[in-house]
Amino acid sequence: MSGEGNGLESAAGELVTLLIMAFALGMDAFSIGLGMGMFKLRMRQIFFIGLTVGFFHILMPIAGMAAGRFISGQFGVFANYAGGFLLIFLGIQMFISALREGDGPLLAPIGPGLLLFALSVSLDSFSVGLSLGIYGARTIVTVMCFGVAAMILTWLGLLIGRKVQGYLGVYSELLGGSVLFAFGLKLLFSI
Which residues cross the membrane (predicted)? Predict the structure, then answer.
């Protein structure tokens, strides 16, 4: 009986660890969602953006696990650089869009812009997938935790950003661009 208790405690502890890791990985999606939410987005777009980011947070760790541990060190640094440059690019494009006044963004979080956004916030999941190196049934639980947490946190960030956008008007894009730019710099200089 005590063996079952220890197994259950071990599984619960592992799940809590995965949820904490998923929350940590999803926090950049939340933060960047705050900035992207300052675009004039409809609820349907916000819903789709959250699903896309969640999907990428499932896909990227699986790709990382498939790539294996032997390239973890080298590619993990590359992923951080790529993510940082993507966020800086998106931030600059939001600045330009705000300064152009009303022409609309150069690259909005729809279509190719959505793919860039989802890729930039999920690159760290690829690195985590590389370092986890786990296989079997637990892989499913791990990537599902990552995907669900990222999706929910993205929705929260976008919805809060959307609310702030209503109060700040045109300055919201400048603020959103600043958030993305700052997170891009943070990624580049934390390496």
Answer: 15-34, 46-66, 78-99, 106-123, 135-158, 170-189
